[in-house]
UniProtKB/TrEMBL annotation:
It comes from the Bacteria. It comes from Paracoccus haeundaensis. One of its GO terms (molecular function) is 2 iron, 2 sulfur cluster binding. The lineage of its organism: Bacteria, Pseudomonadati, Pseudomonadota, Alphaproteobacteria, Rhodobacterales. It is an enzyme of class 1 (oxidoreductase). Residues 2-87 form the 2Fe-2S ferredoxin-type domain. Keywords: FAD, Flavoprotein, Iron, Metal-binding, Oxidoreductase. The gene is xdhA. This is Xanthine dehydrogenase small subunit.
């Protein structure tokens, strides 16, 4: 196919001239003159550009809030994009979410309001009984600089109580929309705008062949990083192969969690909560909701960033990855994939196809993220710990950190200080001191080297406190009046 096809509100769009770096936001505002969707940051951080993306999954049609500013247009093939202009109540007036925002004074300057409404609309459809904490989580990726969040949260609670989901347009039209999207799938899509080329493979086998034919192509999954290459660094990513719709398999078998590389953070969240509950809170701090709906675990690994959120936890859990090149696959420990800063063990024509995570129900597990802003921020230091204890002795210790070196990396000297030692404060103090032998972190805009080293030591001590006294409060919580 040489056409990009998708639904925009109630209109079918077919485009032939589409470049790899074209964004959905520019198409909405410049080509369609749909200016309700705003550009605030152009990096997926403020949420003013939030729209809903409806896509077909194994369980049916799913709508999720995403950032239009870093959503590259080619990735919209066979999706339903819903903007603020499409919202309406059953009588054609204000939608219940919009009416609640008016009634509860949830807007002042109004610039951020369309994005907030769209995020709350996504929540209203999927979790109408959301409480204040769930609403705050849904709004992690939306920044309001003047209203304050209290009236917005009150509006969200009121909208949920008002109900009306069954009469909502997206609910009534769901079957018809799903059928239209299904009719758009099934063939490779080749697009271009001049020399700027975008390719959408039909399936994973097609991707494998396409990457052999185009070994220097940029792979684009959720574009939560690549989008910034385009909007902030003006980087040429052509030719780009868009893969966010592929490798969505999830399975739990033989003591192993198997995640296709295209599984998003949001798609994996229920599995993490069920099988690695110690990491559930950490998982909810990966970007904002819009980023978690778009970003994929495989791309977070393949990108090779030293501050990627998933590798420290996955390395601590002894995860492995499957790399595919053509019809050939090879499996290796995740920690061995990261060779040096910007260098991974990925051969020409290979891509990450699957992530394998051993389930370890008896292990003591923790995941920590430290950043300047609690929600929707980039990591300064991240850590994943997995420790086995038998008869009061530490029989195995895996400690992995991000932000402490040029790659996500295990703290082997700290691990050695724990191995075979009593599960006691002195052992963890020794491990904290050994961190200085594992890492010599750098200073940058996010944290100084001294701060990072101090945080890493203290996270090891925090783990001991949490594990030795499970009821001990180690940080302030909202429920305590903060």
């Amino acid at each position: 196919m040489t056409q990009l096809r998708f639904l925009l509100n109630d209109t079918e769009i077919a485009l032939t001239e589409v470049g790899a770096s074209d964004t959905l936001l520019d198409h909405l505002r410049l080509a369609r003159r749909m200016t309700g969707t705003k550009e605030g940051c152009a990096e997926g951080d403020c949420g003013a550009c939030t729209v809903l993306a409806g896509r077909l999954t194994a369980t049916g049609l799913v709508y999720e809030p995403v950032n239009a500013c870093i959503r590259l247009l080619a990735s919209c093939h066979a999706t339903h994009i819903v903007t603020i202009e499409h919202l309406r109540g059953p009588d054609g007036g204000l939608h219940p979410v919009q009416a609640a925002m008016v009634d509860h004074h949830g807007s002042q300057c109004g610039f951020c309001t369309p994005g907030i409404v769209m995020a709350l609309y996504g929540l209203w459809m999927t979790n109408p009984d959301a409480d204040a904490t769930e609403i705050e989580t849904a709004l992690q990726g939306n920044i309001c600089r003047c209203t304050g969040y209290a009236p917005i949260i009150r509006a969200a609670l009121a909208a949920g109580a008002a109900g009306g989901q069954a009469q909502d347009a997206l609910s009534r039209e769901r079957d018809a929309v799903a059928a239209r999207l299904a009719g758009m799938r099934g063939a490779r899509v080749s697009l271009a705008r001049g020399a700027d080329r975008a390719l959408v493979p039909a399936d994973t086998d097609d991707l494998a062949q396409l990457l052999l034919d185009e070994p220097k192509a940029t792979l684009v999954a959720g574009a939560t990083d690549v989008g910034l290459w385009v909007t902030k660094f003006m980087r040429d990513i052509s030719p780009a192969i868009f893969i966010g719709h592929l490798m969505k398999d999830i399975a739990v078998e033989d003591g192993m969690i198997r995640l296709g590389a295209g599984v998003t953070y949001s798609e994996a969240a229920p599995l993490i909560a069920r099988h690695v509950p110690q990491a559930a809170e950490y998982w909810s701090r990966i970007g904002g909701w819009q980023v978690r709906n778009a970003g994929t675990i495989g791309a977070n690994i393949a990108n090779g960033s030293p501050i990627g959120d998933t590798p420290p936890l996955l390395i601590a859990l002894d995860a492995r990855i499957v790399l595919r090149g053509g019809d050939t696959r090879r499996e290796l420990p995740l920690e061995d994939f990261f060779i040096d800063y910007g260098k991974q063990d990925r051969r020409q024509g290979e891509f990450v196809e699957e992530v394998l995570i051993p389930m370890q129900p008896q292990a003591r597990i923790a995941a920590y993220k430290v950043s300047k802003r609690r929600d929707s921020d980039i990591t300064s230091v991240a850590a994943g710990f997995c420790i086995d204890v038998a008869d009061g002795m530490i029989t195995r210790a895996r400690l992995a950190f991000g932000g402490m070196a040029g790659t996500p990396k295990r703290a082997r000297r700290a691990e050695a200080a724990l191995q075979g030692q009593p599960f006691a404060a002195a052992s963890f103090d020794a491990a904290a001191r050994a961190i200085a032998e594992d890492f010599q972190p750098l200073s940058d805009m996010r944290a100084s080297a001294e701060y990072r080293a101090t945080v890493a030591r203290n996270l090891i001590r925090r783990f001991w406190l949490e594990q030795s006294e499970p009821g001990l409060p180690v940080r302030l919580r909202q429920s305590e009046g903060v």
